[in-house]
Design brief:
It is a single chain. With about 650 residues, the chain is an alpha+beta fold. Among the domains are: about 110 residues, Arc Repressor Mutant, subunit A, CATH 1.10.10.10; about 55 residues, no CATH class; about 140 residues, TolB, N-terminal domain (Rossmann fold); about 120 residues, Tetratricopeptide repeat domain (Serine Threonine Protein Phosphatase 5, Tetratricopeptide repeat), CATH 1.25.40.10. Strands 4-3-2-1-8-9 form a 6-stranded antiparallel beta sheet, covered by helices on one side. Strands 10, 11, 12, 13, 14 and 15 form a 6-stranded mixed beta sheet that branches. It is elongated, with a radius of gyration of 31 Å.
């Protein structure tokens, strides 16, 4: 087998370079993680460029006789990892060709960088012969510059030595070409107005550190989301791509974005190293790449710096966001670590996860009482714990705690969109202060236009105020920012249901169930819509499916009882009613759920009695907007209830 001369420093092919001495693979100067057998396989193929490397040669080189491995499996794994790193395909290879039952061949042109001459020499060419800088070679070295040159009629002339004797026409033409190049280079990038941040790869090798890389991804998304001219895909959608083997152009198409940010995180003791690169989706070309290393306490400043660098590269207008991205912030290292763990469990969106999140956010506050983001996390946790979907705590216990935490966060830093949104959530669901809530929601979306949750919650605020068209518009904004979020998709179906647009609601629920057929909320929304269209059999089936998937959610059960009642199955409705009454206690009386069942049973008096009880317990008034309560809308008692909540008069 051929060997590289000892003077060889690096080998180049396409937009890749292999540093032979350092044992590193780089793509446009950015290091790509490729270690062990896949890297040795690449070196083996490069040494034999153009020739077949047999399977036996690979075995002898990578796995000597004293090494015992499943050769076929190990070889397949190595070749797949190598192709993935190079973005290559077995079906349509650009670099590595497979010869069935024989071996592999490296088919791309190769340049060898000789250390003694410190310049690249084409593979197979005499060392003293300089290759002309062809369009193809230029594109391999600098694709973006090559594209610029190709856009002018004088591109070919710019790649050849100029002669001193030029005609006036040639000079004029050349000047025009330079002017075009200058304009192209100075023109703002109108194409990049949306991007997605892929989950940063954890390079520690320790799976217990996943919370850290996930948290750093969240923080970078949050920083970039503050730029008003940029649509940034939310965390929920992006986490579905963690570990996914999809090309960047494919991901960009699925999310409808112009560019993608990808990178790595390595934490070692009190030091953190982040590598990030910005890639244009249409061409899969790197626009910008950089590595940073800071102490843990400076990691918030680092995130600001990365976000600002990306904003500058895509040339968006940073005013008035510039002041936010220029903030210099430090944080206690232990507090920051506890905060990231809290966000990790908060993002699980389970009752147990919310409880653990509260513990970690309190730990972060204990370590650093001035850490505003930790108070925001605490507010977010308590806000969800008091919501009907989780019901971890009663509204009277959860929402006041959420309000205190959100208020403290804003006292420390009033630019936190999440804190404004959590405060608005409490003002809506517990204080029923609609004007103040509206103000806080508007401030949240102003500070962070890409914060999907703020748009989602604001849509519910608008629904309660019976501003249905505005609510649908706001929910669509949330969807565009978080297109793979199951709960936002299901909430869109719910908003359409409340707006009495049943066919559209049914269609949206079906689309949600295509993403996850077992998602309980989607079945719940679909069941409600079927019932409103008097398709009782289908509606009851979906509601029963939702109850099974959720483990017996009380709201789902009350809607099933309502469906039984309006479809004539009165005894089954009464059985659920009795059970919910038996399960009531001072914290969870199930009052609004019981009222709904009485509406289905056409007992207005009992329905109003239980709604009055729900009023005393500070229930979520959005339930009153649902079509199933249409029966009560003309009742003076119902109108009086709405007035006392602040929704009439």
């Amino acid at each position: 087998m051929r060997e590289f001369p000892s003077s060889v420093r690096a080998v180049r092919f396409g937009i890749f370079e292999v540093d032979v001495r350092a044992g590193e693979l780089r793509k446009k100067g950015v290091k790509i993680r490729l270690q062990g057998q896949p890297f040795l396989l690449l070196i083996t193929l490069l040494k034999q460029q153009g020739d077949v490397v047999t399977r036996e040669e690979v075995r002898r080189t990578l796995w000597p006789e004293e090494t015992f491995v499943d050769f076929d499996h190990s070889l397949g794994t190595a070749i797949n990892k190598l192709r993935e790193a190079l973005g290559d395909s077995a079906a349509n290879p650009r670099f590595i060709e497979t010869l069935p039952r024989r071996g592999y061949r490296f088919i791309a042109p190769v340049e060898v960088v000789d250390e003694s001459e410190n310049r690249p020499v084409a593979s197979g060419a005499p060392p003293d012969k300089k290759e002309p800088v062809t369009g193809e070679l230029l594109e391999a070295r600098d694709p973006d510059q090559a594209d610029l040159l190709k856009t002018t009629a004088v591109g070919a002339r710019l790649r050849r030595p100029l002669r001193w004797k030029m005609t006036g026409f040639a000079v004029l033409l050349l000047s025009a070409g330079f002017m075009i190049l200058i304009l192209l280079q100075s023109r703002p990038s109108a194409l990049i107005r949306s991007l997605a941040v892929l989950p940063l790869e954890n390079l520690s090798g320790d799976t217990s550190q996943e919370y850290f890389s996930d948290g750093m991804t969240d923080e970078l998304i949050t920083e970039l989301g503050q730029i008003s001219e940029l649509r940034v895909i939310s965390r929920t959608s992006m986490m579905t791509y963690k570990g996914a083997r999809r090309s960047l152009p494919q991901i960009a198409r699925e999310l409808n974005v112009d560019a993608v940010v990808e990178g790595t995180v390595l934490r070692s003791g009190d030091r953190v190293r982040i590598t990030a690169q910005l890639i244009r989706a249409s061409s899969d070309k790197t626009i910008w790449a950089q590595s940073y290393e800071v102490e843990m306490r400076d990691v918030l400043t680092l995130q600001n710096k990365v976000a600002r660098s990306i904003a500058e590269q895509i040339r968006v207008n940073l005013n008035p966001e510039q002041t936010k991205l220029d903030r210099v912030k430090t944080v206690n290292a232990e507090a920051y670590e506890a905060y990231l763990k809290g966000r990790y469990f908060w993002n699980k969106r389970t009752g147990e996860g919310l409880k653990r999140a509260v513990d970690y956010f309190n730990e972060a506050i204990e370590k650093d009482p001035n850490y505003a983001e930790a108070y925001t996390g605490l507010a977010d946790s308590y806000a969800l714990m008091g919501d009907w979907e989780y019901s971890v705590l009663s509204p009277k216990e959860a929402f006041p705690k959420a309000k205190v935490a959100a208020t403290q966060a804003l006292a420390l830093d009033n630019t936190l969109a999440e804190a404004h949104a959590s405060l608005a959530f409490v003002l809506d669901l517990f204080d029923w202060d609609w004007e103040a809530a509206d103000k806080e929601y508007r401030q949240a979306v102003h500070l962070s236009p890409s914060y999907a949750t703020a748009h989602q919650w604001y849509a519910w605020h608008l629904i309660v105020l019976e501003r249905n068209s505005e609510a649908i518009t706001e929910m669509r904004k949330a969807e565009s920012l978080d297109p793979l979020s199951l709960i936002i998709s299901a909430d869109m179906a719910d908003v359409l249901l409340i707006a009495h647009r049943y066919d559209e609601s049914i269609q949206r629920s079906r689309e949600t169930m295509q993403m996850d057929p077992l998602f309980a909320v989607a079945s719940f929304q679909l069941g409600q819509a079927f019932v409103q269209e008097h398709k009782y059999g289908e509606g009851i089936a979906e509601l029963q499916k939702a109850i099974g998937a959720s483990g017996g959610n009380k709201t789902f059960r009350s809607n099933l009882a309502y469906a039984f009642a309006v479809s004539g199955r009165r005894n089954e409705a009464l059985a659920i009613l009795a059970d919910l009454k038996n399960r009531s206690n001072k914290d969870f009386s199930n009052a609004s759920e019981i009222a709904l069942i009485y509406v289905g049973l056409d007992d207005k008096d009992q329905a109003m009695i239980w709604l009055e009880q729900a009023y005393k317990e500070r229930f979520n008034p959005s339930i009153l907007m649902r079509p199933c309560f249409d029966l009560l809308r003309s009742d003076p008692r119902f109108q009086d209830l709405l007035r006392r909540i602040g929704l009439r008069g």
